[in-house]
């Protein structure tokens, strides 16, 4: 699948695009190689850039003063996040809720085949994915990377008359 996508990209654009991408090993930028224990599928360094801009004023102070300023900013941010979390209407965060709802909608296109135990085979247009509910595993890896049920897992929960909302990871 990786090679097919790289070939498709080289057909769409110039061949240099894929050559430039392959200068760095795909293990450093391709989701197929990401570890699944962190439940984060973000590859970009936007978080570091955001944090650096957030502490910009403190960065030019002496080390102790800088660390104190950062600590105070983090404490204030923590309180703000607690207040924000108190406004939620469920245990699932608003961002995770959006992803989950999109996945629920997409799951309507999938077809479920059950092996009689905990294994399922999901037909998703031209691709087929294996889902194991007990292991929280799906071949698409989206569920394992994010901790939010992928469309294939959602199909299986609907098949078993279970609520997919109850199966979002609690980090």
Please supply descriptive tags for the structure shown above.
four-stranded antiparallel beta sheet; 46% helix; 3 domains; flat; alpha+beta; single chain; 171 residues
Give me the oligomer status. Answer: single chain
Secondary-structure-derived class: alpha+beta
Q: Beta fraction of the residues?
A: 5-15%
Number of helices: 7
The dominant shape is flat
Strand order of the largest sheet: 1-2-3-4
Query: How many beta-strand runs?
Result: 4
Ends: how far apart?
31 Å
Question: Which consecutive residue ranges, at least 5 long each, have pLDDT under 50?
Answer: none
Tally of discrete structural domains:
3
Protein name: SWIM-type domain-containing protein
GO molecular function: zinc ion binding
Keywords: Metal-binding, Zinc, Zinc-finger
Domain SWIM-type: 127-161
Summary of the model, kept short:
Residues 127-161 form the SWIM-type domain. It comes from Capsicum annuum. The protein has 171 residues and is an alpha+beta fold.
